[in-house]
Amino acid sequence: MATRYNENFKIEVVKAYMAGDRSISEIAADYNIAKSTLTGWVKKHGEECQYKTTTKTSQEEFESAYLSTTTIHKYMNKDLNLSAIVMRKKPGYKSCKKHKIFDNLLKQKFNVDEKNKIWYTDFTYMRQPNGKFRYNCTIMDLFDRSAIASVNSDYINIELAIETLTEALKKEKPNNGILLHSDQGVQYTSWEFVNFCKDNGVIQSMSKAGCPYDNAPMERFYNTFKNCFYYRYTFESVEQLDEMTKQYINWYNYVRPHSTNNYMTPMEFRYRA
Description:
Elements: H1 7-18, H2 24-31, H3 35-49, H4 59-63, H5 69-79, E1 118-127, E2 133-141, E3 146-153, H6 158-172, E4 178-182, H7 186-189, H8 191-199, E5 202-206, H9 216-228, H10 238-254, H11 266-270
Parallel strand pairs: 1-4, 4-5
Antiparallel strand pairs: 1-2, 2-3
């Protein structure tokens, strides 16, 4: 006898699939249903479950965006056999001598039971309208995947790393002993940054060289950052780029649901009753 599912359950499963965090096989396995069943539900309920999207750059319309480009690409590539966007070439970074390398204290244990216990951080790049690169440094809380500090700069240097950490510390005021996980970039291994962390009660942890899996949540955040925001817009000025970066971080924290948070937004999960 065929199993009957109520409409609320079907919509819950479709929303989980359309969030773009897991494949159709993973969703089907998690909910103990056939892939063909899930495909049928997506076709029937996809429109009512999808997030609204826009290609305009006004603040009001940007904040109303709700369907991630990552999800759209998944449908294009897997379901419709359409081509994806081409990733832009990364800029060349100047290598410098590393100073202090810390052990990996996190060891890919990405589930945290309280806020402001483990933070992680990294850099990414964006091309400015004048052709030069602009860099972003973000610090996230592993507890709810919220972006607690995000700063843009023309330079990927120690000052940007310290400015971002200063903003996070000022905003959250964590207890001494908070863990900050990063890669082995020279910004994080420099004595200036190491001493800043020590003076502010921050314990450093670092990924193994050449192992992005050690910093997987941060890699995933920047993948979403690029696909849901940066690749979708044309920026007319550096000021617009910086302002829309702030808008995106606000949207990411307060609007976009995250699978790790049981599909609550980072801020909903952080301050839930």
